Amino acid sequence: MTPRRKLTRLGAALVVTFALAGACTDNQATRVIEKSPTTNAGGGTSGTGARPTGGTSGTGGTGSGTGGTDGGPGPDSCLDHCADPDACTPEEQVSVDACRIYAKRCPDQPADVMMDSGGTPIPAGPDATSTATRPQLSEAEADELYTIEKALRGGGEYTATYSGSGEPGAGGAGGEGGGPGGEPLGERSVTYETEDDWDPQGPIEDTTKIVPGIVVDPNGDPMTDGTYKTIASAISAAGVVAGCPRVFIKVLPGRYHEKIIVPAKTSAPPITIYGVDRDPTKIVFVRGDAAAGAEEDGTPLSVHDSATFKNSSPQPFQARNLSIANDYVAGTFPGDPEDQTAVALNNQADKALFDNVRILGHRNAVYVKSEAPNQVSRIYFRNCYIEGDEDIILGRGAAVFDQCEIHSLGDRVSTGAITAPSTRVDNPHGILIINSELSADAIVSDVYLGHAWNETADDGGAQEAVGKTIVRNSILGAHIRAADPWAPTSHQTPKNPTATDTVLYTSDDYYAPMTGLIPPEVFLAEFGNSGPGAAP
What we know:
Number of strands: 30
Strand content: 15-25%
């Protein structure tokens, strides 16, 4: 296995504070201790005691109020829920217990917990000649339309409107099409349910300074409060701490053989699952399911059900300093090649961050999905190592791979494709690979940068998926096809309803003449790449 290249560096610290009330929706936000702790006469560190959860207590233990003297625990402010703290009623005790759980699973964070996320952009390579089968963006197009900021601008349900007199939808169910009588759609404008200019490139918590609310230890004692032996049980415990700005789940080194799901629970807080050590090989989540297999109860699996790790959290989710793997061996279950899909990571939630994560699989290692075809899920991968062979990254999500290495394996097949986007025709952003490296085993050659995946809708109906991938400011290995790195697919369009082998480079390849977008939209292209596999 090729080791992951380290592409980021640390920087200066930054403090972020906010009010406790309400659940936090920004993935960078962290509740911090707002006052400097003082040293008591007994040598313990006292907390601020300003909230029910309090600050840090004396070294003898953590309290839920002001820290105690002589290194002892502070008074339990959760008893304020009782009219008589020495004789709580059963109803009052429920509130006390909930308060104590919150205090333990949602501790304050040190004032210096935030750090610069770091990273060094890869400068644009030499100018390349744009050809019909290897189109290149201009610098103006790349910097105006295909940046990290633009790709992650909005999420949730989206609506497309047009300046022209054409009728959207004429091209097929759920998509765009030219208007009647050859009238163009004109310029498109898209509005999102959530337009918050999400910027996951900003400061992030230093994992060496985080105070975890939950700890996962494969060799731990499950009777120890706050310690769990499985990732699934820790996620379940985190889900009950409603209103916490973010629950930090610290995972100790080990190999966790389980199927992990972060559920779509609206009352759950944002969750970060992390390892302290920057070496992601020390923590491995692994499972070996495939679309050709079945659950233990016999229920057939599908592509997304085969995932080792599935994130559906409606709150901003983070995974850091760990590995997610699907170790399924192709052919273990009988079936055609399509059934041999074995997903490592399936993310279908908005505003998910994967930082310094290794994602290991073969066919369809990373599935960037969304809750519905007309919704956008934004996913940001930073400093990640991803390996697979056929259609390594697929789906309709707005996914950015920044400072990542995407490695093509040759132990099963000697060719393949990096991406298989199923971006809808009216969604402007699909997969963006930037500041990254595409590498491969020595045996691998003739690998495509991508091809459209005509994914069907979740209800089995038609979906106008054209697929959109931009690869820019990246280092391409010699395994990338030189003349024609975008693969054709069987894709019927308003322009060619009977097409079989088609590459949709721009919207002009999709719409009937004089009925499409003005100006045309780029679907598949490159800019500023370098390395032996870059365009000459």
